Amino acid sequence: MKRRNVLVAMAAAPLGAMLPLTSFAQKPIVLGFAQVGAESEWRTANTESIKSSAKEAGIDLKFSDAQQKQENQIKAIRSYIAQKVDVIAFSPVVETGWETVLVEAKNAKIPVVLTDRAISSKDETLYVTFIGSDFTEEGRKAGRWLVEKEKGNAGPINIVELQGTVGSAPAIDRKKGFEEIIKADPKFKIIRSQTGDFTRAKGKEVMEAFLKAEGKKINVLYAHNDDMAIGAIQAIEEAGMKPGKDIIIISVDGVKGAFEAMMAGKLNVSVECSPLLGPQLMSVVKDIKAGKSVPKRIVTQESIFPMEVAAKEFPNRKY
Ligand code: GYE
């Protein structure tokens, strides 16, 4: 600031409260958010959380939907850089390939916040913080639930896996965490594993293929999100089998659709992954603008819901 402007600002500051909105009034913080898409119930709740909490926080939100395509997200980030927004936040659809655009943001001195999904980059100066769940732990919770459930069953226990979007942090980590737990006992076997891209339609389609290939051999389905599990439930019913009984189903997210499926006895358990990241994001954005230091990693607290507690928990669910 020029010396004269500093003096004007100083003189105006104490009067701020008494004055009507004038040119001295602070401009709202502008946040550019590049969303993954609208692939699941989780994502819809996440978008809603970000939009409503921006409004509440008085933050001017620029929002874009990349339809699950990295190139679209990169374009959106570039346009936020060109618009000189105050902060950029995004949920990276996949883990790799972000360096170039993030260096551009860094050179433009625009801080970047990662929400929900992480990137895999050695350069930690490319973003200020990562707010989101511990996906590996979610995978472990799913694995531990299964180990406990199948205690006393000699096996073999044949598992089919519906993976999330190829190369995405939740797909990579939920697989890793689950395998880490079940590999302790060789009776557990993953006989098929394929991506269903986190959508109901793909989940159904891939489950149909699994059923065609393996039929009654399948004992367990592990789906990386509820939407794919819900799609698969349909495929299982259409094949004349009982989801939740003939095939044990484990999924992740804990969205309302999963609770409904659990109450109907068709889904055995859902590991919680909270999409309600908006309020945390807005407070971090404000802290960054105020020059406060923020932790490099902010982990979301979560639980696990077996079908036995679904009816009791359902009224408390917010997404
Ligand atoms: O589990 C899935 C969504 O990144 C945690 O993305 C998120 C995942 C979530 O499509 O439903």
| Strand content range | 15-25%
| Tally of separate helices | 11
Q: Tally the beta strands.
A: 12
Shape: elongated
The CATH topology assignment of the largest domain is Rossmann fold
What is the string of helix and strand elements?
HEHEHEHEEHEHEHEHEHEHEEH
Q: Which strand order spans the largest sheet, edge to edge or round the barrel? A: 2-1-3-4-5-11
What is the helix content? 40-55%
Which whole number gives the mean pLDDT? 93
Task: Describe the 3D structure.
Residues 1-25 form the signal peptide. Keywords: Signal. Residues 36-292 form the Periplasmic binding protein domain. The protein is α/β, with parallel strands linked by helices and 319 residues long. The chain has 2 domains: 30-133 and 275-301, Response regulator (Rossmann fold, 3-Layer(aba) Sandwich); 135-273, Rossmann fold (3-Layer(aba) Sandwich), CATH 3.40.50. The chain has helices spanning 3-12, 41-57, 70-82, 99-107, 135-149, 169-182, 200-214, 226-238, 256-263, 278-289, 310-313; strands spanning 30-35, 60-65, 87-90, 112-115, 129-132, 157-163, 188-195, 220-223, 248-253, 269-272, 297-299, 304-306. The strands form 2 sheets. A 6-stranded parallel beta sheet has the order 2-1-3-4-5-11, sandwiched between helices. β9, α9 and β10 (269-272) form a beta-alpha-beta unit. The longest helix has 17 residues, at 41-57. The chain starts with a helix and ends in a 6-residue tail after the last helix. The model is unreliable at 1-13 (pLDDT under 50). The structure holds beta-D-fucofuranose. Beta-D-fucofuranose binds next to α2 and β9. Beta-D-fucofuranose (GYE) binds next to α2 and β9.
